[in-house]
Design goal:
The chain has helices at residues 29-34, 93-105, 115-122, 128-138, 143-153, 156-180, 190-218, 233-241, 284-299, 315-322, 344-350, 367-378, 392-413, 418-435, 442-449, and strands at 7-10, 17-25, 37-39, 52-58, 63-73, 84-91, 109-110, 221-226, 259-265, 268-274, 302-308, 329-334, 355-358. By secondary structure, it is of the alpha/beta class. A hairpin with a 2-residue loop joins strand 9 (259-265) and strand 10 (268-274).
Length: 456
């Protein structure tokens, strides 16, 4: 596939910096760049892959206004498999925008979000899984996620899924051989079919389960900090965030709305939500805050339930401790820097089955122990091997494929004919091809590439 037009965009983040890069891709990239770039040393031909020092010329003003480096990358050994040019300037938004304007005047078109990577995908440079890995690498929130994304960019996940498809195609070929040439001695047995299907189902189940871990790397696990008013929820929120994010006062009910912040604990992202105190509201704003707190607590994947250790347990504390029984939670026994009127042992005795961590959010006492418990309880600890699924799209398609394989296995166990088994596997293959991006769903493509920044 070949695109007729040439696109241009700024590829560095917005704002001021020491360096800014303008990128072009398309068959006219070099011609367009040369319309406003003049090498310091006269060159008839721009050598490939060698930065050339020069100046940016303004045709209307008939003057030079910037020094820059131009690097020309001829097709097909480029990111998009098209001719590409990168112009490195000083990182002034004004200068970069002017270079873009000159490029557009010379015949380029402003790139859409993710269009460079979209061209790389459509030109066969990347498959859809690798394109998703590019976005994951750009947005990585931890080094662990970056390492996983880089491996997938290099094709590790693509090889895994292609291996699944090859096994299915081989199985289908064996079944077709049995159907078309029943007199042949070399045949696949029901036991062999069962073994292949069971192995594939187990493999897919492991990949599907890895999404829970992948989500902690990419999106983060949402944890709601709940408790009655003035037990130190906002102080704990600030301590885990490592900054004064929430307002803290001695007056109860300071937090009337919720605050949300991402924090990195070990190699996983958590979305902490500081909520209003769960107590009897005396003001319309407090009533709304209470409603939002209850909603956030229900939606969260886990809870940090804060108890004031310097006071006796109240009816509100007991109500909270008896609520959310099905929700994973840690009971945080706060304010242990003061004389204690309730102990961790007492909480464990009265409310068994809960993880209890005594801390002082104000002093930072046992904060690291709390982080250890958070990571242990809310992040899947199972070793999924090298591959971890980071996208719901991938998970949903894997579940469809696994469901089809389970149906095929059921048909086998019910002694259905090989024609039925063969037809069921044929119906699975489109989902595998969509997973690899070999069946192009325009809505899915638009959703993926619109998440990219312009210039990538």
């Amino acid at each position: 596939m070949r695109f007729e037009d040439t696109i241009i965009a700024i590829s560095t983040p917005p704002g001021y910096g020491g360096l800014g890069i303008v990128r072009l891709s398309g068959q006219d990239s070099l011609r367009i760049a040369q319309s406003f770039f003049q090498p310091l040393r006269s060159k008839k031909n721009i050598p490939p892959r060698r930065p050339i020092l020069g100046k940016i010329y303004h045709p209307q003003e008939k003057c030079f206004f910037e020094e820059a480096l131009l690097t020309y990358f001829p097709a097909p050994k480029t990111y998009t498999r098209e001719d590409m040019v990168e112009i490195s300037c000083h990182g002034s938004p004004l200068l970069l925008e002017e270079v873009i304007r000159l490029g557009v005047e010379a015949g380029a078109r402003l790139a859409r979000p993710g269009e460079f990577t979209l061209r790389a995908y459509l030109n066969g440079r990347l498959d859809i899984l690798q394109a998703e890995a590019v976005l994951d690498l750009i947005k990585a929130t931890s080094l662990h996620q970056a390492r996983i994304s880089f491996q997938q960019l290099e094709g590790s996940l693509s090889r895994t899924f292609r291996s699944v498809r090859e096994e299915l195609v081989d199985l289908l070929s064996w079944l077709e051989t049995n159907i078309e040439f029943p007199e042949e001695e070399v045949k696949i047995t029901s036991e062999q079919i069962k073994e292949i299907l069971t192995s594939l189902i187990d493999h897919l189940q492991t990949l599907i389960q890895s999404y829970a871990l992948g989500k902690t790397f990419s999106e983060g696990v949402q944890l709601a900090i709940i408790g009655r008013a003035n037990v130190g929820k906002s102080t704990l929120f600030n301590a885990l965030c490592g900054e004064e994010r929430a307002i803290v006062t001695a007056l109860p009910g300071t937090t009337r709305d919720y605050l949300e912040e991402k924090v990195l604990i070990k190699n996983s992202v958590f979305r902490l939500v500081d909520t209003a105190g769960l107590s009897q509201p005396s003001h319309p704003a407090e009533k709304e805050g209470l409603r939002r707190t209850q909603q956030r607590a229900q939606q969260a994947e886990g809870l940090l339930l804060v108890i004031d250790a310097s006071e006796e347990l109240t009816s509100e504390d007991r109500h909270l401790l008896n609520s959310f029984k099905e929700k994973p939670k840690i009971i945080v026994l706060n304010k242990i820097d003061r004389p204690q009127k309730v102990s961790a042992m007492e909480i464990k005795r009265q409310f068994s089955g809960n993880v209890v961590v005594p801390i002082s959010a104000l002093k930072g006492t046992h904060l690291e122990q709390l982080k250890e418990k958070i990571h242990k309880l809310f992040v899947p600890q199972k070793d999924f091997g090298q591959e971890v699924i980071l996208h719901q799209r991938q998970k949903v398609l894997l579940e469809q494929i696994k469901s089809g394989l389970e149906k095929t296995l059921h048909l086998l166990q019910e002694n259905y004919s090989e024609e039925h088994l063969s037809e069921e596997i044929r119906q699975i293959l489109p989902a595998v091809n969509e997973l690899l991006g070999e069946i192009r769903n325009e809505e899915i493509l638009e959703n993926i590439f619109n998440q990219f920044c312009i210039g990538k």
